[in-house]
Amino acid sequence: AVMGRTLVELFYDVVSPYSWLGFEVLCRYQHIWNIDLRFRPAFLGGIMQATGNKPPAMLPKRAEYLLKDIKRMGKYYQVPVQISGGDFKRVLGIGTLGAMRFITAIDMTQPQYVESLSREFWLRFWSQREDISQPANILAAARQAGLSSELAQKMLEMVSSPEVKNRLKETTEEAIKYGAFGMPAVVAHVNGEPHLFFGSDRLELLGNVIGE
């Protein structure tokens, strides 16, 4: 962390629309607050499994509320998230493990692209209903985020490497150690102590804890 700046880690998976909302707000505030924002691509499926959590949409009444809530938050934060009832099934059917491994490979080798690439995956998954588990779509997202075709192809080949798989697994385990049970999981390090905030609706509390 830069001297005098509070390290804030954002654990996220592009399968989560709330992670997208939290991500965009923190991306804006990293220039306003005195924070050093660190992106931590992780795997939501791994967190759910380890903690016995279930997707909130499995509960019909909660699913009904989520649709309204995500639309309202998208409008409020001006994030182009599009959501409809059929999306919950779609999400369960399309895995983001490949996409999260791809982002992890980028994070390990070309971290300057992590922000734009993550945003591109969310846009494609949540605004354009694209199947981001397909290699062709992963490559298209990478090109849109500014990577050359050669580099994107090289990163795609890295996805199946033990290094990348292990890094994603380790990051996911780290989130669980901090107490995460879902995403986004935001961890602020204040005076040597980690403070966990769950969801995209606790960011004013985060500001309060870090003295902003």
Rg from alpha-carbon coordinates: 16 Å
SS-based class: alpha+beta
Shape: globular
- Helix percentage range: 40-55%
Question: Going across the major beta sheet, what is the strand order?
Answer: 2-1-3-4
Share in β-strands: 5-15%
Distance between the termini: 17 Å
Q: How many E strands?
A: 4
Number of helices: 10
CATH architecture name: 3-Layer(aba) Sandwich
Give the overall pLDDT as a whole number. Answer: 93
Given as residue ranges, the uncertain stretches (5+ residues, pLDDT < 50) are: none
Oligomer: single chain
CATH class: Alpha Beta
- Name given to the CATH homologous superfamily: Glutaredoxin
Q: The CATH topology is what?
A: Glutaredoxin
Order of helices and strands: EHEHHHHHHHHEEH
Folded structure, characterized:
The chain is of the alpha+beta class. The chain is built from ten helices and four strands, in the order βαβααααααααββα. A four-stranded mixed beta sheet has the order 2-1-3-4. Helix 1 packs parallel to helix 3. It is globular. The two termini are 17 Å apart. The relative contact order is 0.20.
Summed up, what is this model?
The protein is α+β, with helices and mostly antiparallel strands.
